[in-house]
Amino acid sequence: MKFRLALLILTMTAPLFAHAEGGVLGFIKKVGATIDTMTIRGVDRRYIEMPKKPWQVIIQGNINQSVLKMDAQVDAFRMDKLSRDNPYDEAFGDLSWEPRIKTPITAYAGVWAGYRGYGFGYSKNVGGDDGSIIKFGLIGSSYGATLRIHQFSTKRPTVDAKNNKTDEKVIFEYPLEDPIHVRLMTLDGYYFFNGKRCSYTAAYDQSVIQRRSSGSLMVGAMYYHSTINYAEDRNAEFVYLMNDIGKTKHYQISLGGGYAYNWVPCKGLLVSGLGLLMLTAFNRLDVWRYNSNFRQYFLGEIESINDIPAGSLDPMNKDRTSVDEDLKDKLRVWPMEEGAYEQQHSRVIPVIDARLSVTYNVGNWFFNTNAQVHRFSFKYDEDKGMLTDWYINASVGLRL
After folding, report:
1. CB 3.0 to 4.6 Å from 134: which of 39, 149, 217, 296, for a disulfide?
2. DSSP secondary structure string for all residues of 49-88
3. What tens digit of pLDDT does each residue of 39-56 get?
4. pTM
5. pLDDT, greater one: 115 or 330
């Protein structure tokens, strides 16, 4: 659908370009000349070199991981409310959970194409979760903006559990019958106060070359949005363990400042580090809570789920592979009648954005490795949460 829409827009606008002075080729040249001017304006050529060939084609490899910490207290699984005999009541009297959804480390492969820092990239998973990454970049001499959209699904999260009474921690993989669907979008922009001597684009899309070491104070802004959804019938047990939360949406706008430094130890080699500390100007979390026949059975509110044996509902069995086969088609999840949807606005919270890049230029070729870590905090009720999203890129590119 998106491809068809883009094709339709291109078809409709092509005649306008064709009738412009010089036709389509002339229009493209004018756009390129404008970008060239914006890129080199005010740049100190002793520190930043502008390659004669403006295009970059990059083959990328990527590994990444997302970790969602919910701090969801299930209050000893409410064992005191159970009417049936409970084998955990004596051993885990005040057990509570602090589950964390940790996705597998996933590998992606893709391509990036750009002109003087303005470009587009697409990557697809080749191992781990099932997902894709789309990136757009608009980067000039002293400013820039990057949009990154990562969507994926996974059936094998890792969950941490903690007994608050004994501080005993249990970590186990929790296979799901239906996947967790995650969509993460970050839009960040920045401004370098010393952009004429210190270049972000030299480190992260190699459209220019840093010749001498230099640093710069910077300011930045970031918009972040995530959707996490696992509220499927066959995930009823997992929804219950997540304190009845089956879906979340998080919106965050952050502003702050930091410092970037480009170190050039020898010709062609660049090591770049960047750190931003931002504060949230807007931080909202939407939460959907769900009921289920699993929850009702486990709390003793109903006698059975079609006579399913209680032994199949063992949340502390670390060797479990899943609930019994007979249970899978009998589970049902539905929104709670009261409090199904909650909206929470968090207080001002610090957000960390850290990046590191190593680039080597040789002729028209360049090689790069870079890493980035985002940490987004939020609060709901009396509990806290945090999403950590990190990735490492390795790439080889050619200027054309």
Report:
1. 149
2. E--S--EEEEEEEEEEEEEEE-----TGGGGGG-SS--TT
3. 666 789 899 998 888 889
4. 0.77
5. 115
